Amino acid sequence: MASLAATFGRGAMTNGWVDIKNSDVIFVMGGNPAENHPCGFKWAIEAKKTRNAKLVVVDPRFTRTAAVADYYAPMRAGSDIAILLGIIRYAIETKRFHEDYVKVHTNAPYVIDEAFSFSDGLFSGWDEGKHEYDKSKWPYQPDEQTKAYKVDLTLQHPRCVFQLLKKHVGRYTPEMVEKIAGMPKEKFLKVAELVTSTGNAEKAGTILYALGWTQHSSGVQIIRAAAMLQLLLGNVGRPGGGVNALRGHSNIQGATDIAGNTEILPGYLKTPIGAWQTVADYVEKTTPTTLNKQSWASMNFWQNTGKFMVSLLKAQYGKNATKENDFLYSLFPKVDGSYAGYSWMHLFDDMYRGSSTKLGKQEPGPEGFLTFGMNPVAIGPNSPKMVAALAKLKWMVVVENHETETAGFWKAPKDQYGTPDAAQIKTEVWMLPAATFAEKDGTFTNSARWMQWKWKALDPPGQAKGDPEIVGRIFLAVRELYRKEGGAVPEQILNVAWNYTNPIAPDQGEVLKEINGKALADIHDPKDPTKLIRAAGQQLENFGQLQDDGTTMCGNWLHLGVYTEAGNNTQRRNNADPSGLGMFHNWAFSWPANRRIMYNRASADAQGKPWDPSRPGISWNGEKWVGDVPDIKPDSPPGQFGAFIMLPEGVGRLWSPVLNDGPFPEHYEAVEAATDNLLHPKVTSNPVSKRFSSDKDKYADRKDYPVICTTYRLTEHFHYWTQHQHNGRLNVTQPGFFFEMPEAMARQMGVENGQHIRVSSPRGSITGPAIVTKRLLPLTLAGEQRWQIGMPIHWGYAGDPAHTGPLANLLTPSAMDPNTWTPEFKVFLVKVEKA
Amino acid sequence: MATTQQGMEIRQSSASLRGTATGARKLPVVAKYIDTTICIGCKACEVACAEWNDLPPVQTEQRGSYQTMPTLHAQYWNLIKFNEIEIGDSLAWLMRKDQCMHCADPGCLRACPAPGAIVQYENGIVDVNPDACIGCGLCETGCPFDVPRYHARTGKMAKCTLCVDRASVGLEPACIKACPTGTLHFGNKNAMLEMAEHRVDQLHKNGFPAAAVYDPPGVGGTSVVTILAYGDHPEWYGLPKDPSVPASVRFWKRVLKPVGLIAMAGAVVAAVGHYLTVGPKEPKDQERPS
Amino acid sequence: MTDFAAGAAPPRTAPQENTVWNGKLVRHSAASRVIHWTVALFFFLALFTGMPIWSPIFSWMGNLMGGLHVCRWLHPWVACAFFVATIVMWTHWHADMKMTEADRGWFGPKLIEYLKFSGEDPNVGKYNGGQKLFFWFALLDAILLLLTGIVLWFSTSFGAGLREASILLHDVAFILFGVAIVAHIYLGTAAEPGTFTAMSRGTVSKAWARLHHGKWYREVTGEEKRR
Q1: CA B4, B7, B12, B18 torsion-angle sign
Q2: What long-range pairs does C174-179 form, CB within 8 A, spacing at least 24?
Q3: Measured on CA atoms in the order C73, C76, C82, C84, is the torsion positive or negative?
Q4: I need a surface site. Which of A405, A526, A692, B119 has the fewest CB within 10 A?
Q5: A520 within 8 A of A481, measured Cβ to Cβ
Q6: What is the rounded average pLDDT of the residues A778-785?
Q7: What is the CATH number of domain B10-244?
Q8: Interior/surface letters A458-482, b for 16+ CB within 10 angstroms, e for the rest
Q9: Predicted ipTM?
Q10: Residues 6+ apart with CB under 8 A from B146
Q11: The dihedral sign for the CA sequence B224, B226, B232, B236
């Protein structure tokens, strides 16, 4: 998500599920949609059947997706960037990229300042002491005369982005890719040829990925490389194109939109930092400066940040937030220092060590913990550390459907998890039974950003309650305590607006109305003050109606339009599709503004004509943009604004100077490197990647742990849920934990199919049956034969004893991406023995 | 269902002396369409089958495969078979939904000794009537696809009914309903064959010269129309290459039984004839019994 | 040998096999007859439970036995009993059933000759070659029926080839038995009057014995050849 935002402006799947049917080439890497998204994957099949689309799969394992692919190529886990940059190099060298698109819709012509350099695996601005980059060393070069970015539309300037990229990827020859990725040269060339066949106006190709790219110590940069490839091929913004992030939960997109991460507020507003003391400060620090290219301007939509933030504060504090008191911004929660210390990875590190990293280890670690619909012991790396961390808490509240590994952490088998004796653990645990998805109203926001209402199907069992009621009751009780007893800053709680008809269990429709926002006073057209746009109390209809003077409130600006005066738009179920492209504008609501394909301005050329008239995203009819809901000012003629309205440049970023590990992606080995980095042996792993240093954070050396291991999910199971199902159907179809190992490796070790093996890392050890398969191939790395194995994640020690098993994360390391702090679950080192 | 499906016309039934066809209505033959080239092995069909038919869960164990269990089971009528096949330097992971093929010439029905225990409806569905089934297991021998299973608890044979209870009211079978990718369709067999031929043409053009529809003539065709990318190697999918009702079963039913009947009847006739012509053999020096 | 003929009061003890008793020759002891009829009973039970499974023509037999489901359940058990009884019969009779030089031709010409009822062979012992053949045939066929029957009984435990072979062999064995049993019954009743009493009362008349089993008659009575 972070990388898509850094490249296109928004962190979400660019297109949609149904749109995959419009693709000519579906490139699947870093994901296994047939396994993990079987229902959405039908659209890939549809493209194969109706368009004769080519499905290309690159994966360390021959997956269920590979089983129906037109072409499959094997790779080494963790070599994604080398392959993707190799394809970019191939596209540039063979001119199989969409040149017209690149010139109009990307920052390829931008000239980069002399301050940028790259050598020996490090970009300029490297601070060896802090292990960080100074991103100001990667600036665009302004034009002295126009003060805008300097560009060279011929793409010939030696320091223009295109030429820098060409030079950067020049090292990723097919031979080098073969050496790094273990993908035979012919197979690489075939993949490159198929993928770049869409680098023109006639064809469109999509990339589907999921956690196979995210969960790496360079995960964000892998996705960056894919996003750049798609920009180069001219596939972004077009029907049948895009970089499509397939989300693993039914509502993970919705969670991200509404502030799922520590560094963002609802609608991806940046979380305030303590140093930003006023709204004006906040707006100044977080609003990017509009810097225009010579010909096109950027809408730079984030220049409305003030309106978004003030409307959010009005939603948060209601009438208590006034212009005079700066909308109570001072009470709004803020972080100290950088966002990093607030990630849940750091939270658990703090918990385990008993001290906080946030302010230079001056504070004690957390003593209480509330976990809501999350099972950190199971989903976090290095499970023994997770268990040990919880054992140091004073209290924990778990809101869940079942007793999870987290809820009963002290029951973790001591021999595997090193669990402290129960008598030594002082953690007091409360478990609040929660309703499941079918037992409450609400919305799901799918990968395609469709917000779809779901109705409660049945009452929750026993004392279980829906989340709104659990949150409502906790809030009211806490507020009552603050009201009675005071406390550190009672105003923070006492000023919160809680104006629901039923304050104990707020109606989800009311909450959605609040998220959409409404006018708090009459709002007039700024051009014509006699014209009333919205009367006080009316639901807002579009972004343009938001105000920064406190006359509008809006819980999440991005969702604006979801609940208008027309009603709850997530409940719309009209499946008419006049476009024939699967847009379904009257089905549910798709943020932003019910737009089905983001950046759709890029589906048309400089004049506003669709690249492919048979698959128009939007087109300019002389007066306005028609087609999908335009991702640009609807009446702005071609040439006025760039297609990527959320970026200050207004164009897609082949060069992105905002990420923590470089403006271009670069191949680095995993933190637990299986081999030296062939490109720059001195910098083997991502220099900015994060790891922890507690006594439980041990990392493997390839001499002792020579086998590459990866983790994944199975279609038969939903995360850790099915282990709770007594005699359930899904436990019949996949009865238990297993490893998968290559046939040749099994032969060498004398392991029979189904026989048990023991797999160990410095964190722990697991014994389980091995599926001996042809679907995993041996690798040759630096002339040596090496193996990769894998295991699914679905089991744990909680639930029906007939279906428990080892947590895969017993083996995984706490190694993290420097931008998102996502752990590296997809590559780590182990040793394998016969059990 | 304790008996055959109400309202379905029967074309033929097992172990019957004379025609058992019912009714005058002519129903079109239906078929399942299975496109193995786009099956992702998700097992939704397996679960839907077990759910719709209320089949209690079977205890399974991980023994080194993604396949749920080694073969079909009396409580598991729908099983995706997973096969890893090396073809040159590439690999195929073939997934095929295995279930009753609903043969036009059903070997199970041929072999079945219990009158009416196996019936073939007018629309081609082959069904078991548990009331009449005596659980002898002969159908297992008669089936060239290794489908029927003896259920130890009920002492009856069990297999896929093609959801005749759904089909008879115009619904598709549960497995078809559950399929997320369009691998499975259901309809009149002619329409399914037409769709399949269309897809096979596409496969021919896409580098699968041997792609074919599996509708084996040896059993008169099946009400399961299967598309195989490697049509010349059905065995890669766990399908017999040229299936037919076993010759032994045919010989047994068509030759041995009549011959046996004639032989035994002949023996009786011969005895009577002998008595009439040669007559009894009695001692000439008859003694009075004392 | 003691001759109890001519009005002598019969002893209370059971007559010994191969003796003259009440002017008759004792051909089968009570034990022999019980064994024979036990075999016969189970044979017919197996037949009546098997025939309806074999062909719907005999479904009436199934009805007689309580329905096809009962037949399916009963058939293997009565068949087992039949087999056990046959084995008992074998232990009891096999000594008398040794094929001798004189029985050689019974597979061919002698059988035809015999069925023509045209001549008498005065040198036939207690059992003629045909009877001995039937005895051994019944034993072997019972074994065959048992073995193939077990495969059919537990068919899921056996491979397809064996199952198919068993279906055919079980049928062949049964058909042969069926034909043989018709001959057996015919010859034991209508064709040769006086024979049936051997298995009912256990005795046969002297004339019968002289006619059919001349040698045995002489051995039992001690009479010389009457020629």
Answers
A1: positive
A2: C174/B260, C174/C50, C174/C54, C174/C145, C175/B256, C175/B259, C175/B260, C175/B263, C175/B264, C176/C137, C176/C141, C177/C138, C177/C141, C177/C145, C178/B260, C178/B263, C178/B264, C178/B267, C178/C47, C179/B263, C179/B264, C179/B266, C179/B267
A3: negative
A4: A526
A5: no
A6: 89
A7: 3.30.70.20
A8: eebeeebbbbbbbebeebeeebeeb
A9: 0.93
A10: B71, B72, B140, C160
A11: negative
Q: In chain A, where does the domain assigned CATH 2.40.40.20 lie?
A: 690-834
Q: Can you list the domains of chain C with their CATH numbers? A: 28-97 (no CATH), 102-227 (1.20.950.20)
The pLDDT tens digits of the residues spanning A242-271 come to: 999 998 888 899 999 998 888 899 999 999
Residues 134-173 of C with CB under 8 A from B: 152, 155-156, 160, 163-165, 167-168, 171-172
Of B44, B51, B62, the CB nearest to A735: B62
Would you identify the CATH topology of the domain A2-248? Dimethylsulfoxide Reductase; domain 2 (3.40.228)
- Which residues numbered 98-127 in C keep a CB inside 8 Å of some CB on B? 115-117
CB contact under 8 A, C178 and B263: yes
pTM of the model: 0.93
Distance (Å, rounded) from C-alpha A11 to C-alpha A268? 9
Nearest CA in chain B to C194: B282
- Cα–Cα distance, A130 to A137 (Å, whole number): 16
- Contact yes or no for B150 and C156 at CB 8 A: yes
Contact A48, B24 (CB under 8 A): no
- Per-chain mean pLDDT for chain C: 86
Q: Which residue has the tokens 């922890």?
A: A692
pLDDT in tens, A277-305: 999 999 999 998 776 655 577 888 999 99
Closest Cα in chain C, distance from residue B274 (Å): 8
Cβ of B122 under 8 Å from any chain A Cβ?
A: no
Q: Which CATH architecture has domain A690-834?
A: Beta Barrel (2.40)
Cβ within 8 Å, pair A729-B57: yes
Q: Which region, left, alpha or beta, applies to residue A160 given φ > 0 means left and ψ of -120 to 50 means alpha?
A: beta
Name the residue among B39, B43, B84 with its Cβ closest to that of A733.
B43
Confidence grade of residue C5 (pLDDT, cut at 50, 70, 90): very low
Q: Which residues have C-beta within 8 Å of that of residue B276, sequence separation ≥ 6?
A: none
Question: Of A719, B133, A373, nearest to C69 (Cα)?
Answer: B133
Q: What angle do CA A96, A97, A100 make, to 5 degrees?
A: 130
For C209, nearest residue in chain B (alpha carbons): B283
